[in-house]
Amino acid sequence: MQYTHSDDELIKQPIGYWSWAAYKAVVTRTRAALDEIGTTQPQWWVLAQVARADSPKTRTEVSRILRDYLDTGAAAMEAEIDTTITQGWITEDPEGRLALTPEGSAFYAKAAVLQEELWEERHADISDEEYLTTMKVLQRFIHNTGGRFWHH
Q: Which of 24, 42, 94, 122 has the most CB atoms in a 10 Å sphere around its CB?
């Protein structure tokens, strides 16, 4: 890969621009790939929350966890949960507990393979050490500017 600037020039580049450009590239690629298999990124989040839960989660719990992901918002998350139910991937019992249907389990497995492929694509030629450093540096930028992580 050829970098846009020399090291001396890169050190002076604005983190706001480059973090935004990275966000935009990763999210755009992820959403396009998920669209190709017939889902959205928020619907994937819902499926993953339900599929990976140790015990059944309620609609309220899933919505509360996910509503701040990428500034999705509560109303949009509720609509995405509704869509997973309409698609036949998830059921909701009278207490609001969500469960995967057999079709949902199969679709989740397909989407999980795609997500793994996307992970490998994004991480090509990036060592675990480089990735860890990047994550820690980004979290320090957030901390230093008074920002908050999605889960705080």
A: 42
